[in-house]
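User: Predict the structure for this protein chain, please.
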Amino acid sequence: VNIWAAFSSVGTFPLCIFQEILTAALFVNILEGHLITQATVFHGSEWFLVQDNDPKHTAKLTKAWIDKNMKQNRIDWPSQSQDVNPIKNLFARIKLELIKRNPKNIRNLKLQLLKIWERIDADFLRPYWASMPKRCQLVQESSGYKIKY
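Assistant: Here is the predicted structure, written as structure tokens:
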């Protein structure tokens, strides 16, 4: 089971759960169907996409789609800054919660993921998005190389 997830200062975006391997084409479909609509509803045009440099995020197809549809809404991430994206920390917390719930099959895993995700509120997310200015400052100070955070 794979997931795509996003959050902002107002809460979580709908969780996208899929079982196929994530390709650039699937990633573009997810951005088109999940990210842009929700980001616009939540924030109008005042939002930015933060993502790491996973090959699906940097593929020619993805870059072309982002350039065409959301160039003004992205932050280019230095290639050496691994795991600076705050969603990595959120995924670690979700994983711990899943371990406690001990799902026994894929159907139950998906159900538990959705339940955990739906319980996350803006107050819980505050430390994650509020850390971005400091994270960006540290990345800038390290000339784009890995930081400790």
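The chain has a mean pLDDT of 87.
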